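Agenda item 2: S-adenosylmethionine complex prediction
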Amino acid sequence: MKNLEELLKQETFSDEEIAYLLGLTGTDECNQLRTAAYDLTTELLGTEVYYRGIVEFSNLCELDCHYCGIRNGNDEVERYSLTQEQVVDAALWCGEVGYGSTVLQSGERHSPEYIDFVENSIREIKTKSISETLPEGLGITLSVGEQTLETYKRFHEAGAHRYLLRIETTNPELYAKIHPADQKLEERKKCLDYLREAGFQVGTGVMIGIPGQTIDMLVQDIRFFQSMDIDMIGMGPYISHHQSCMYDKSMMDVEPLLQLAFNMIAVVRLVLRDVNIAATTALQALLKNGREVGISYGANITMPNLTPREVRPSYQLYEGKPCIDEGRADCHGCLQKRVESVGRTVGWNKWGDSKHYMKKSL
Ligand code: SAM
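Presented output:
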């Protein structure tokens, strides 16, 4: 293996090199990795971090993912669905304060009423958010799980143009362990193809530190992102939830888990280069400034929470989710300072689309 300084100058990496970088633990070495990823982000994407105000509009879910706090089988969680007016109001507020883009996320459902609800919400947000600062309205990212190709086409036609569907892990045995038998890895992969076909900028990602996951599996996850020509990445640490089926399975210790998650962001930046990478809320659940550290390791997207305060406690996918007792204005006040604390600026009133995607569509 070359020395680290030489390795970090490369533009392509072998599996062995990726595994070595992911496994770094020494303070100096991790700082070298961080600097290389941060500098590459600046070189390829500039200094701006883009906001996507996230509206978690319903915790009703038909699925039973073993790790998730809002899985269908959790009878202890209070279920809610926002009205269309509440969803549109939250999204429009984010446009008014300059965020440029919104993310609509919920548990997974397939009823015609639900599909209509999502489609109509997108249309209304799109029409009502057009302004002088946003002549094409808000950028809309969806995160509503596995749907049919026809449904994806309807959502895209209504005006959503980015979609996040995490593959969670690409290892078939691990995927089978953390999902019920009727939830198949192949189906999820097929949906990523459908999203591409429907015209979306396609985002995926994995949970990091799933019990039983190895560094080699994470290397293969990165290879999967490459082979699918993914445009956006959203990854975060696996954090246990006391009402999930995996609560007895051991979660990694916080310090090594965070380091692995930060290394994963940096290595994905070095390998995939010009994709958008989110500094996810789960990082902040483990470390107060986790999102800023994520940005310093090469992330360029952050997702302030716009979910109304009264329902936030019911959208706890994992334990310790931050800001559940705050409203959207509190997040707005503190986030800019956090972004600037790591030498970045906020890309106000911009969609901040994936450069990787834009290059392909030229
Ligand atoms: N239903 C949609 C879907 O499946 O894509 C979106 C909602 S789902 C709750 C959003 C993401 O939460 C999942 O992709 C998963 O990675 C993450 N998540 C759920 N439980 C988690 C946990 N215990 N720790 C970390 N992330 C978790």
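Discussion summary: The chain has one domain: 15-22+32-360.
Owner for follow-up: CH.
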